[in-house]
Automatic annotation (TrEMBL):
<dbReference type="Pfam" id="PF02171">
    <property type="entry name" value="Piwi"/>
</dbReference>
<dbReference type="InterPro" id="IPR003165">
    <property type="entry name" value="Piwi"/>
</dbReference>
<feature type="domain" description="Piwi">
    <location>
        <begin position="178"/>
        <end position="247"/>
    </location>
</feature>
<dbReference type="GO" id="GO:0003676">
    <property type="term" value="F:nucleic acid binding"/>
</dbReference>
<protein>
    <submittedName>
        <fullName>PIWL2 protein</fullName>
    </submittedName>
</protein>
<dbReference type="InterPro" id="IPR012337">
    <property type="entry name" value="RNaseH-like_sf"/>
</dbReference>
Amino acid sequence: MVVLVPELTFLTGLSDLQKNSRTVKEVMWEMTQSPRQHYMRLTSLLQQIRDSPEASQELERWGLHLDTDICRTQGHILPSERINLRHRSFFPEEDLSWHREVTKEVSISAISVNSWLLVYPRRLQPLAKDLLAAVRSTCGAMGMQVGEPTVQELRDERVESYVKSIRSGLGSQEKVQLLMCITPRNRDDVYGAIKKLCCVHAPVPSQVINAQSLMGHPGKIRSVVQKVLLQINCKLGGQLWGVDIPL
């Protein structure tokens, strides 16, 4: 058993065995506590320390005294910021989320994708077709124009196959705006090789999509594609939204 100090640790991810919806929801609930919930937890901890003879004796030995309530101060609630898109502005909901608006409205500036490369293993061809269909049906609402890609199917899923195919695809076209790769699962070796090639050896904006994130009902694929298009627009120099910053 490895004992870690909670205040000095940060959760960076879950293993594949833990990635079920219930676990993720529980983790998110722990991470997004309201101020009131934080207060209740702290006061409960202080109460437990006070009611524990061992803890009280230890603090007394150190010459420490803990109040049973935490320090209170006057707070200030900032007004909501207006989010600006190209044709309209709005105030976000209480949870400060505006994903729905940016996927259904035209961004401040949207980059057209006319020359791009799509690489995937042959067995994922049906998934790639669903991905392209979702791209065609969702890009217009965001103000993006996405043309047909140059498609390269891989015979296997080895790292070398991805690298060789990408090198070939980038070398055969004069100007490639974007490389998109579909990987069969979360593989750090494939992801690392693709990013190293596209960031160091043949610089080009790249987007790697885990096939597992696309599997499921059509609504799930559509949601993933919307987020991917937002990322692509940013990577190509587009601007999704803005806020008013007065002098």
